[in-house]
């Protein structure tokens, strides 16, 4: 047995397989955010103090936030990318369009309320924080933590400044003032596009990916094996088989889409609109089935390595936003994952109330299906090539005889 080459090559093969599949674990080991887009709105109208000094604490606060963020930036960039937005309505629209993971709003009366903290009738200033929960469970949680930490830091600084100012005025602080000074700035935190319960902690779109992907691989491989056992002497015969294959894939897509929706709902997964989700999952299955079948028709079973790698590399990345991936995965792996459009489409349906509509995800999946359909049908040209090769072999054998 030790004389067999495969025995000596086996350690190298095992090491190579372990190395390749371990690469899929890297993105989830220590995901660090870089340039998470967060909307920053200051509607503060400012205030004129009794001594005639005009001040705008909203502008001061936003400046402090930017300075604090830049001071803690890593080599790849700051953890947060602040996007200045003019109004709260514009920020909310950006949250609906999945432009921002969160928003920090400084209201119009912020300066006026802060200026009253050491008066007889103190009014606690308030900041509004919106966390876009449905956009990404991990990124929105991290964005909310960043905003809460910023407000806590601002509170500590303002409290120190106010106590120092009170000390200069004799150190007398009323009960009302003391209660406000404990937390000079109040936080009003609201989750928008909430994931709710029974959604796999907001990862319901990702959890539905693997059954659809594995089912499409199984369907594509079975049709490939069945057709490869048949001998087609003419292109029209193979073309008829391809048409049957495509129709069979459409039937499998309907079974997979509606079947998975029914199973997932029965197991307790919250799906807002089962029919629309089932239709979209059927589209996803059909697109993946055609893509896999097209590649198999030209490359053969060895192309299965590609689809297995897509599964192992794609699954960890689909649950992470691109801002929390390393440069290699963000720039060279994630953009080429066809299943990400399935996850993005389901996220819009589950958490953003979009329903079944013609959007970017549906357009890309339809494009994948259309291109794959053309590639699959053109594989009938191989029959002619095989016939020419066979004819050339026969003529050569005749001439030699």
Note the topology.
Elements: H1 5-22, H2 26-29, E1 36-42, E2 47-48, E3 54-55, H3 57-71, E4 80-85, H4 88-96, E5 102-106, H5 110-115, E6 126-132, H6 137-168, H7 175-181, E7 186-192, H8 204-207, H9 209-228, H10 235-266, H11 274-299, H12 304-318, H13 327-333, H14 340-351, H15 360-377, H16 381-400
Parallel strand pairs: 1-4, 1-5, 6-7
Antiparallel strand pairs: 2-3, 5-6
Helix pairs in contact: 9-10, 9-11, 9-12, 10-11, 11-14, 11-15, 14-15
What would you say this structure looks like, in words?
Strands 4-1-5-6-7 form a five-stranded mixed sheet, with helices on both faces. The chain is elongated. Helix 9 runs parallel beside helix 11 (274-299), helix 10 (235-266) runs antiparallel to helix 11 (274-299) and helix 11 (274-299) packs parallel to helix 15. Helix content is 61%, strand content 9%. With 401 residues, the protein is α/β, with parallel strands linked by helices.
